[in-house]
Specification:
Helix content of chain A: 40-55%
Largest sheet of chain A: 8 strands, mixed
Strand content of chain A: 15-25%
CATH class of the largest domain in chain B: Alpha Beta
Distance between the termini of chain B: 63 Å
Oligomer: heterodimer
Number of domains of chain A: 1
Radius of gyration of chain B: 19 Å
CATH superfamily of the largest domain in chain B: 2-enoyl-CoA Hydratase, Chain A, domain 1
CATH topology of chain A: 2-enoyl-CoA Hydratase, Chain A, domain 1
Strand content of chain B: 15-25%
Number of helices of chain A: 12
Shape of chain A: globular
Largest sheet of chain B: 7 strands, mixed
Structural class of chain A: alpha/beta
CATH superfamily of chain A: 2-enoyl-CoA Hydratase, Chain A, domain 1
Number of domains of chain B: 2
Structural class of chain B: alpha/beta
Number of strands of chain B: 10
Strand order of the largest sheet of chain B: 3-5-6-7-8-9-10
Number of helices of chain B: 10
Number of strands of chain A: 9
């Protein structure tokens, strides 16, 4: 198995900690807040308020679930539009009350279903991107497993994006890519390699700032380390007077150098 | 049921029973078969009708033809024409594919940007190119659209955009995905400056383009019968293992579900866009 595809397998592993594990182990006093105030409550996205080192924060996580029952209930971590709208509602609430936003991202992608399309999956993601680009509080997003395309980006237009060592971040699944390009989904390993979807790749593109080691993953020390890093980072971002300007530049430069600017 | 399958109308336009005008034919003239009414239409007639079949079916249109149709004569000045994507991931086969497409389409990239007048009103205009990797968005497409919104914000101009796209260009991986964030942030800045953005979604507008700048306009129109959606219909069918509702993801369906301001046939677009631009250029209260 190729190196990249083994990362994909690890990122999808059922035994990996999920969004709720991070919430429970990093924050104190988490209170879940439900619903998008539009249509429904999407169990694939969990959100609420908690404290980080004593300070209130808004936490949003895509949740895949562990057991078969949980995974079905969470729709395998594939959010519907109402999940993204709930997330945006909570982010706007965070902005109003001056709370930083921390997102944990783990999805194979936004759900591909009839209802999701009818209720504007594309519009929901687009609105999150639009609004997150100028949200007046710090946003840190941590990719903990699968970073599946627009469905992941909708919670990752952030000031800092971190990735677990074995998380992946990609514009399309390796299987999807192989089936479109080579009409053969069994070429997923080759596609995974070509897509450059590992944490190291993402860091080299300037898409993520930090790769989090998976040493002791799931253990107390692991969460403690992330908690310390988040506390430090949020503290720094909270004092930045040009937060939104820098967030704009963070995304503005991506892909700019690879554009060729002279005629053939 | 399966036996009758072939009798089912091929799409909503046909189902809707739009009257097809009789087609006059000159012997020997080149024709194009309409996928909606299945008639052979003389090319000259299609051209005269803005590539719209007498039955109402809107054929795909090259970006340059569209600009000619929508912009006032000689008013279009292209910007960033020299830009094109490299092969940042060294993705297998991408360089060759892009070269072939460049030669065949005569375009450097999947979007054409510039300034124009529509109904004598200044605006920035971008038109995506269906014949360049189906309008897929890579770094160059994202960069050009971002630059255009930045230019428009600086010069206080409205932006009119015609989208057609299969989504983010997978050969540029994460860099393509990030263009969704980059263009969205530029659109937000333009919008926060009180400036107007109008999008016309044409067939097909899907994936990462739907999930970013296509759905971020102040007014969103679509051409009749255009596919507008996030996930591809085939993917939805495979995921849900259910048959899709009638007219799924067609612009009429998307309008009914509340995600479009209206449907604009090609023949009325110039007038409608001129009126909408005019209504956003007047004096404002306060």
């Amino acid at each position: 198995m190729s190196g990249a595809y083994s990362r994909v397998r690890q990122a999808r592993d059922n035994g990996r900690p999920t969004g709720l594990d991070y919430i429970k182990n990093i924050f104190d006093g988490f209170i879940e807040l439900h619903g998008d105030r539009r249509y429904a409550d999407d169990p694939a996205i969990v959100g609420g308020i908690a404290t980080l080192n004593g300070n209130p924060v808004t936490v949003i996580a895509i949740e895949k679930g562990h057991t078969a029952k949980e995974r079905t209930y969470r729709n395998f971590g594939a959010p519907h539009p109402e999940g993204y709208r709930k997330a945006l509602r909570l982010m706007k609430q965070a902005e109003k009350f001056g709370r930083p936003v921390i997102c944990f991202v783990d999805t194979s992608g936004a759900y591909c279903g009839v209802g999701a399309e009818e209720r504007g999956q594309g519009q929901a993601i687009a609105e999150n991107l639009l609004e997150m680009s100028t949200l007046c509080v710090p946003i840190v997003s941590v990719l903990i497993g699968e970073g599946g395309s627009g469905g992941a980006l909708a919670l990752a237009l952030a000031d800092r994006v971190w990735m677990l060592q074995n998380a992946v971040y990609s514009v399309i699944s390796p299987e999807g890519c192989a089936s479109i390009l080579w009409k053969d989904s069994s070429k997923a390993e080759t596609a995974a390699e070509s897509l450059k979807l590992t944490a190291e790749d993402a860091k080299s593109f300037g898409v993520v700032e930090r790769i989090l080691s998976e040493k002791e993953i799931g253990k107390k020390e692991f969460y403690h380390r992330i908690r310390t890093l988040l506390t430090e980072e949020i503290g720094e971002l909270a004092n930045d007077l040009d937060l939104i300007g820098k967030r704009y530049e963070r995304f503005r430069r991506i892909g700019t150098e690879t554009v060729i600017k002279e005629s053939v | 049921m399966a036996l009758l399958h072939f009798l089912k109308p091929k799409n909503q336009l046909e189902e809707g029973g739009r009257t097809s005008a009789p087609v006059q034919q000159d012997a020997g003239e080149p024709e194009k078969n309409c996928p909606n009414c299945h008639k052979d239409i003389p090319l000259s007639r299609l051209w005269a009708g803005g590539l719209v079949c007498p039955c109402g079916y809107h054929f795909r249109m090259k970006s340059r033809q569209r600009i000619q149709m929508i912009a006032d004569p000689d008013s279009f000045h292209e910007l960033y024409s020299e830009m094109r994507s490299g092969n940042p991931l060294r993705f297998p086969g991408y360089k060759e594919k892009a070269e072939t497409v460049r030669a065949a389409s005569g375009e450097e990239e999947a979007v054409v940007c510039g300034t124009a007048k529509i109904g004598n009103q200044n605006c920035c205009l971008f038109v995506m190119e269906p014949y360049f990797m189906m309008g897929s968005m890579g770094s160059a497409v994202g960069e050009k659209i971002t630059l255009l919104f930045e230019y428009a914000a600086e010069h206080r101009l409205p932006v009119v955009g015609f989208t057609v796209s299969g989504g983010a260009r997978m050969q540029e991986g994460l860099l393509s995905l990030m263009q969704m964030a980059k263009t969205s942030a530029a659109i937000k800045r333009h919008g926060d400056a009180g400036l107007f953005y109008l999008a016309v979604l044409t067939d097909p507008t899907t994936g990462g383009v739907t999930a970013s700048f296509a759905m971020e306009a102040d007014i969103i129109l679509a051409e009749p019968g255009a596919t507008v959606g996030f996930a591809g219909a085939r993917v939805v069918e495979q995921t849900t293992k259910k048959s899709l509702p009638k007219g799924f993801q067609k612009s009429e369906f998307v309008l009914t579900h509340g995600f479009l301001d209206g449907i604009a046939a090609r023949s009325e677009q110039k007038k409608l866009l001129s009126e909408l631009l005019a209504m956003h250029s007047g004096r404002r209260i306060s």
